[in-house]
Write a structure and sequence with these properties.
By secondary structure, this protein is mainly α. It is built from 3 helices and no strands. Helix 1 packs antiparallel against helix 2 and helix 1 packs antiparallel against helix 3.
Length: 128
């Protein structure tokens, strides 16, 4: 009877140890995810503030340059100058849009967490 109790204790002890290990593994992954989430939030806010400052300064520059060019050519070529400037601004907006779309497609948030999960899966021998 003592062998049975010892075997059950050993089996229950092993299961308990395995659950503790799994719990610690999950806890470390959650901590990594939360840390990356915090870093991404800080990066996003900084990028948005910087983009806002760039946008405001660029808009003011474009308005003043446009105004200056139109004033210079007011008597002779005001319509062609306005058409050329409109086409140039539209091309710049299209280029910026394409660049933004490419960047957003390549954006990989939480890459360290995903990589660690893949490593964990490989260590445990599971596929997929």
């Amino acid at each position: 009877m003592s062998d049975t109790q010892q075997t059950e204790g050993g089996l229950l002890g092993s299961v308990k140890q395995m659950l503790q290990t799994a719990s610690q593994l999950l806890e470390s992954r959650v901590e990594l995810f939360l840390l990356e989430l915090k870093e991404e939030r800080v990066r996003l806010v900084a990028a948005l503030l910087l983009a806002l400052a760039v946008g405001i300064c660029a808009l003011m520059t474009v308005v003043l340059v446009t105004f200056t060019i139109v004033i210079v050519f007011w008597d002779t070529y005001r319509i062609p100058v306005l058409v050329v400037l409109t086409i140039a601004y539209a091309a710049g907006a299209a280029g910026a849009f394409i660049s933004l779309r490419r960047r957003l497609r390549r954006w990989q948030a939480f890459s360290a967490s995903l990589e660690q999960i893949k490593k964990d899966r490989a260590c445990l021998g599971t596929k997929n």
